[in-house]
Amino acid sequence: MSSPTSTPVGSKPSSDGLASPPSQRRRGQDSSNGDLPAMPTSPATDIASPAVHDTSLFSSPRRSVLPSEVDMSSPLIGVRGTPVRQRPDLGSARKAPQVDLHTELPSADGAVASEQAAGQKLVIWGTDVNVGTCKEKFQRFLQRFIDPTSNEDENAGLDLNEPLYMQKLEEISVIGDPVLNVNCSHVQSFDADLYRQLISYPQEVIPTFDMAVNELFFERFPDSILEHQIQVRPYNALKTRNMRSLNPEDIDQMITISGMVIRTSQLIPEMQEAFFQCQVCAFSTRVEVDRGRIAEPAVCRNCNTTHSLALIHNRSAFSDKQMIKVQESPDDMPAGQTPHTTIVYAHNDLVDKVQPGDRINITGIYRAVPMRENPRQSTVKSVYKTHIDVIHFRKTDEKRLHGLDEDSDQKLFTEERVQTLKELAAKPDVYERLSSALAPSIYEQEDIKKGILLQLFGGTRKDFSQTGRGNFRAEVNILLCGDPGTSKSQLLQYVFNLVPRGQYTSGKGSSAVGLTAYVMKDPETKQLVLQTGALVLSDNGICCIDEFDKMSDSTRSVLHEVMEQQTISIAKAGIICQLNARTSVLAAANPVESQWNPKKTTIENIQLPHTLLSRFDLIFLMLDPQDEAYDRRLAHHLVALYYQSEEQIEEEFLDMAVLKDYIAYARTYINPRLNEEASQALIEAYVDMRKIGSGRGMVSAYPRQLESLIRLAEAHAKVRFSDKVETVDVEEAKRLHREALKQSATDPRTGFVDISILTTGMSATARKRKEEVAQALKKMIQSRGKTPAMKYQQLFDDLRGQSKAAITKDMFEEALRALADEDYLTVTGKTVRLL
Amino acid sequence: MPSSHDWINKPLGVVEAMFAQSNSNPEWEAKVLEYFKGQLKEKESHSWVPSLNDVPLHYLKPNSLVKFRCLVQDMFDPEFYMGVYETVDPSTKVLRCGKYKDVTECGVDLNSRNTVTAERQTFYCVPIPGESPWAKEISFLSAARVVPSTSYVPSRQKRSYEEDDDMDTQPQKTKWSLTELQSSSPHGNGDSKRQETEAPSSQTTAPSDCSSHLDLNFPLPGERGPACLVKVYEGLDSFKLNDTLEIYGILSVNPVLTVIVYPYRDPSLLLLNPTESMETPEEQRAHDPPASLVPRLHMLYARPLQHNNPLLPSAPTEDQSAFVSSFLVEMASVRAELLAYLTHVLLGDGLAAEYLLLHLISNVYTRRDVLPLGKFTLNLSGCPLNSYTERLYQIVQQLVPCSYRLSMSLHTMNSMRLVPKKDYVANRLVSGALQLARNTSLFLDETQLEQGQLDSSGVRNITALGNLISWQKVDYDFSYHQMEFPCNINVLVTSEGRSLLPSDCQVPLQPQVTPPNMEEYLTTIHMAQFTSQINKFRVYLSLARTLDYSISDEVTKAVEDDFVDMRKDDPQSVTAEDLHRMLVVARLLSLSLGQTTLSRDGWMRAKHIDMLRRSRTEQQKSLNGNEP
User: Fold this and answer.
1) What does the pLDDT average to over B615-624?
2) pLDDT at A31 over 70
3) Mutation site for B-interface testing, chosen from A242, A359, A531, A642 by largest number of B Cβ within 10 Å
C-alpha cells in the first residue's frame, strides 16, 4: 500500500520557545530528525489521556492543515509511482518540498521502516491513526457508501441507489473542480471509528483521505487532467453546533459551527516557502515557512560561506489567506448576553467565498496560539488567541434562494425532546393545549389563537412549477382588525418573539422599500448592493405588520405580490431580480372611525382594498364583546395574571420553549398530504360554500377560499404530527374559516355571510341596489325623451322624488358613473349629456 | 500564621498556597472560592476591602483584593489562558498557577504535558450609570471610615497603620471627599472627570496612549469613574449584560498589559504574524486599554446587587430582614411625610404627588411572555415651563439612587445615541443612554421639545423610547440584526400637553400655588428638609420596591365583581387596559403603605384615586376640545 515515506511522521519537539508551539504533528521536512527514534509509536494514548489540554499546545497556526496545503505536498509522497506525480499541473507552485523531502527523508525512512517491521502497527505519532488502514477504510467508504434517503441539494441529479461519492468523483472528472465535499454524518454512519479519528485528528486524517481519494480517482480516471489534486473537504461534523459551547477540549479538533459573517479582511499573501540565494555562489535553497517563521539558513551548503543567503521575494511561494469574523447567530444565544465572535481564517480558494451578512456553517479546525511575546519583557501574557482554520463553508441562506426546503435551520432535537414532543402530539387535545399556550397573557380569543397557531405551522409546500403554475402558497395570512386596545399589538409581539425568523414592523413607519428590498451603493466599493427588507428577511417566517391600515397605498401594493406569489420583484438601478419572500403575514388594522362600526362592512370599516383583503386566509375581528360573562372571565384572567406565582402559570400552560420546538419540529419534519376522504370533504365544503350564495344569485366562494381551506387543513394535520390530512382536519379548517367569515364577511344590511364583501369589496345586496338605482335613472332619462343635456342637480332631485327608497348623493353619482360606463351618457361639470 | 488582612493585601499568595497544597487536584479552585466567600461573609469584613468606586486607582495596591460596584456594559469573547503551566528552566521545573493573573512569571515551557488550558471571559464593567451623587458620597464616606488597608504606602507594616490611620488617612480622605462633593453639583462634572482619568495616566509607561483619547464607553455622557475589565472564571452563564454587581477581585495593573499600538505596522510583521495583524488598532484599544486607565480585575466573588442604595443593607441576610421589619413600623408615617414633601414640590397638587410616589416605587416584578408586569410609566402633563422640570429632576435625583434626565430637545433627539450599537471594527458594544441599570429613574423632559424636523436617527430614538415604555425592552443594534434586552427602568415623562410617548398613566398637574419665583420656592422646600429626613425617604423608596405582594382569593373575587359592575355601567370607558392599570396602582398603593397583601380598602382607594385622575384628564380633554 503506502510506501513508508508516505507515513507522515514528524513532529519535532520545538525548542524555539514561545512563538512556535510544539509539535506540529504533521509530516514535514524536518531538519531535526535526531529526535525521531525517541518518538513513541504512541498508540491511542492521546485520546485516552486525561491531558486533553495538551492538544491545545499542539496547535500550529501556520501548519494548519488546509487541504490545499496538504494536497500540494501530498502528491509528492502520497501517490508516488502513480501517474499523478508526473502531471505537470500538480505541485507546480512548490517544487522545493520535493527536493527537501528527498534529500532529507532517508533517515526518517529508516527509523520508520524499522518500526513498521517491528509491529506492523504503525501510527502517526501522537494519534492512533494508521495511515494504511485509514486510507483503506476511506476508500471503502467512497466506494460503498449509499444514502438512499439523501435530500441534500448537492446530491440533486445523482442516483441515490449508487455509491454517492463515486458519482461525485465522476462529476469531478467531468467538471474538473478538484474538490470533494464529504458529509461527516455519512462517514459516521459508515464507520464510526473512522469518523472519530477524523474529528480528533483532522490534521493527519484529512491528508490521508486526500491520498486515498487521489489514488482512487486516478485509478478510475487515469486520463483526466485536474488543476491540482483532489482535496477532501469534510463538512457537517456533529462535534459542535454552537460557538458558545467551544471549549479548550475542542482545540485541534474538527468542528462545525454556525454563525454570521460580520467582517472580512483583505486578502493577505502568506509566504509558504522562502527562496534563498547565496550571494557568493548563487546556490539557491528553499525553506518552508514554519508557523510564521523562516529558519534562515546561516551557512550556504554549497560554498560554506556563512550569512551569504538572501531572501528573494519574487521567487518565494505565497498563498492566499483571509481573516473572517463570525458572530454567533441570534437564535443560538441565551437571553441577556451578547453574541460571541470567532476569528476564522480562509485559505486559497476559500478566500472571498463569503460576504459580511452571510449566515454560514463553518467546518474547520479549532486552534489556539499563545500570544506574541514582547521581546523586551520576560513575562508573557497567559492568554491564547483562538481561531478556526476553515475547511469548508456552507452558506445556510444560499439554499433559501434556491428555495428547496426548510432544513436550512437544521435545528437539532435531542432524542428526549422528540419524545416529549411526540407524546404531546399524541394527546387528543393537543390543538387546544397549544392554542391556549399561545400568548397566555392575552385573554380568550380562542379562535384567533387557533388561527394564529395554524399560521405558525403553515401548509405543505407544493411545487407545481412543472405544470406551469409555479409555487403554491403554503403560508397562511391572517388579518386582525378591531377596536383599539384589544391587545392586537400584544399578540403580534408575542408571535414575533415566538418564531425564529420573525419581523415586526409598523405600517406607519415602514415604506415599500423597507418592506421589500432596496438597492444601495456601497460607499467604499461603489458597488450596488441589494439590501433586503422586512418581508425578505422573514422568508420562512412570519412578518408581523402592526397598524396595517396606516400604511401608504404604495407600500401596501408591494404586498400583493408577496401575499400570493411569495416573491418580490426588484427592478432598480440595474438590478433586476426576484427574491423569495415566503412569509406569512400577520397584520393588525384599526377601524377608520377608531371604533368599529357594526353597521358597516369590514371593507368600509378598515378601508383596505379588497384585492388585498382577499389574500388573507382568515380575517378576524377583535371586538369588545361587552357582555357580563365575558367581563367576568376577563377580570379573572387579568387578576390571575397579576397575582399568580410563576409556578402556577407554568403548570397551566406549556412552556414557550416547548411550543417553539414543537412548531419547529412540525415545520421541518411533517409534510401532510390529503387523503381520499379529506379531499372529498374539501370538495363538498367548497361546493357547499358555492351553493349558499347561488340561492341569492351571488358567488360566495372562489378557488382562493378552497386553497385557504386546504392550507388550514394541512396546518391542522401538522399540529397533530400526522402525515395525512384527514377529515377531522378539514372539519376544523371549515369551522375556523366559517368563524372568521362570520365575523368579517357578514353583510350588516342583510345579516348574511357574503364572501363577495371581501372579494369585490361590496356585498351582493349593495351591488344589486346600485344596479337598480342605475336602471331607475336610465328609465327616468329615457322617459324624458330627447333631451341631450340635463342639469345635474335637477336630475338628482327628480330621481329622489321618483324613488321610493332614499337616494343619497353617493348612490346617485355611482348610478351616473355606471351609466357613463355603459356609454349612455357623460357627465361634464354640472351638466349631464346623453350620447 | 497569616495575618488577618493577608487575604486582602496578598490574595494571590493565598491562591498560590492553596494551589501548591493541591497537588494538581482540580478541587483547589473551588476551595479558593470557598475561602474568599467565607472571609467576606464575616461581619463587616466586606467593608474592609477598598472599593475602586471610592479610592482613586493610584492609591490602590496592585494585586490586592478590591471591590467594584458596577454594571456589566459589554461581554467580550471568551479567552483561553494557561491555567497551569511549567516554567522553562529545566533545573527548577515548577508548576505554576496562571489563574487570576494576566501574565506569566518567568519563561513558560510550552511543550510541557502538564499545561492546563482553561477558559475565562472578560466583562467590560463601568460604574453604575446615573448613580446619584448622594449615593456615591455616602458609600464613599462609610468606606473611608472603615478602610484601613487602602494605604498607598505599601512598605508599611499593617499593624502600624491600623493604629495611626486616623492621623494618616484623614487628610487624604477629606481631599477625596472634596472632589466628590464638587462633582455632586451639576456643573462641576467636567473638571473632576479630568482629574480622574488623567491623573493616573501620567504614570503610564506608554506615552503614545496618552495622546489618543480613550473612550471609556460610559452609557451616559458626563459620567466619570474607573472602567474595569473583569476576568470572570466561574459561572459565566449566570451573568447577563446590564447586571449590577459588586465584584470582589484581584486588581491587576501590570504595565505589560498595555499594548502599544504602532502608528504603522512593520510589513514583515504583518506578513509573518497574521494573528497580530488581524486586530484593528480600534479593537486593540477597546480590548486592551492601558491598565493604568482601565485596570483588570480577576473576579473571586461577585454579588448581584438588588439596589445600590448605600443606606440599606445590601446583602439579603438576617440583617436585612431585621432592618425591613423595623422599618415597616415607620412606613406609614414616612409615607405621609414624603407625600407632603412631594405635594409641596408639585406645587400643592396632592394627587400628582400620590402618583409620583407610586411611580417612584414601581418595578417590573415579572414578565408574562412579552408583557412586563408592574411597570408604571407616569406622564406628568401641564408642567410649568422655565426650569421647573429641571428642579423637579434634581429633587427626584436626591431621592433615588440612580437617575438620568434626558432633555428631549430636537437636537438631543436627533444627535444622541440612545440605543447601544455593536461596533464591529472595535468589536465592542458602544453604549447608549438607554443602557441603564435596573430601577434607574429615567426622567424624560418633553417640555424641552420644540417643533421641527426629526431626522431618521431622531425617529429611531423616539421609537426606542416608546418600546422602552411599552415593553420595557431595548433593541440593541447589532447592525445585521437587532437584539432585545429586557430592562427595568422607571420612566417619568414631563410634558406640557399629553406626551407623544405612550405612558401607563397620565396626570395633568394642577398647581394650587403659583409662587412668583419658582427657583426660590423649590430651593426653599428642598433646604427645609433635614438630611436625616431625606435619608428616610431614600430608604423608604428603595425598601417599598423590594416587598413581596399577593392578593387573596377573596379580594380577587371582589376585584372581579367590581370590574364587571364598572363595565356594566359604562362599557365604553372601562377597558381591560384600565383594569391592568388599576391592578398596578392597587399594588403600588398597598406596597407604599407597607402592606404586602391587597385589602378591599386598598382596592377602593386605588379605584378612587384613579377616578380622580380620570376626571382630571377628561376635564382637560374637554378643555382642549373647546379650543379652536
Assistant:
1) 73
2) no
3) A642
